[in-house]
Amino acid sequence: GQSLEQPSEVTAVEGAIVQINCTYQTSGFYGLSWYQQHDGGAPTFLSYNALDGLEETGRFSSFLSRSDSYGYLLLQELQMKDSASYFCAVRDRRNTGTASKLTFGTGTRLQVTL
Amino acid sequence: DTEVTQTPKHLVMGMTNKKSLKCEQHMGHRAMYWYKQKAKKPPELMFVYSYEKLSINESVPSRFSPECPNSSLLNLHLHALQPEDSALYLCASSSLLAGLVGSGDEQFFGPGTRLTVL
Question: Mutate which of B44, B45, B60, B107 to disrupt the A interface (most A C-beta within 10 Å)?
């Protein structure tokens, strides 16, 4: 089975840095993604780690440690518009002619305050 | 065009009705997905189509019937639903190269259909 755990809620002030953790136990693992979803909106892709280490995309960075079954999303210079739910997601295998599954974590609701 | 469109945006139906949800993308993606999302929960995978063929069915009840008429369209036919099926239904698409090292792993989601079953 697949299990991806995240903190349920995080609160931070505008301009701060926040880290959202994700620990996973999955029967297959091929990469860890992060998605953002605003209330009433669709999930949108933020980042992807297939290999250990840090990936940086603007204000957002994502980290993966395969040996620890752990990853995190780091959001810097927080803005009010970053208030949303954030989901980690694991792809269980490589796509090989048929698409593999993406399983989402429990989700973290981030509230950015003034 | 990196957009996935879904119609209708909202749907209210009775337990005896038959309705269909529609999804369209023109990004040339050959993988398309249906997810169900309840409030404050993550999206749950229902079905995956690869090259217009059903490749994954996550043990979804038969009252949900997917269809992929061509590489751009995905439908979800609904019949005899239950009130607990009320949820946001999300369609997504991705390249079948998604997930490879150096290829990113983006699934593009539509805005969803908010379904209420009375």
Answer: B107
- Mutation target for B interface from A34, A100, A111: give the one with most B CBs within 10 A: A100
Report the mean per-residue pLDDT for chain B: 92
Confidence band for A91, pLDDT divided at 50, 70 and 90: confident
User: Among A52, A102, A78, which Cα is nearest to B44's?
Assistant: A102
DSSP for A62-91 reads EEEETTTTEEEEEE-S--GGG-EEEEEEEE
Q: Which residues contact residue A58 at a Cβ distance below 8 angstroms, ignoring those fewer than 6 apart?
A: none
- Mean pLDDT value across residues A37-52: 93
CB contact under 8 A, B90 and A43: yes
C-beta atoms of A42 and B112 within 8 A: yes
The per-residue pLDDT for B106 is 84
Query: pLDDT of B79-104, one tens digit each?
Result: 999 999 999 999 999 988 655 555 56
**A70 close to A52: Cβ distance less than 8 angstroms:** no
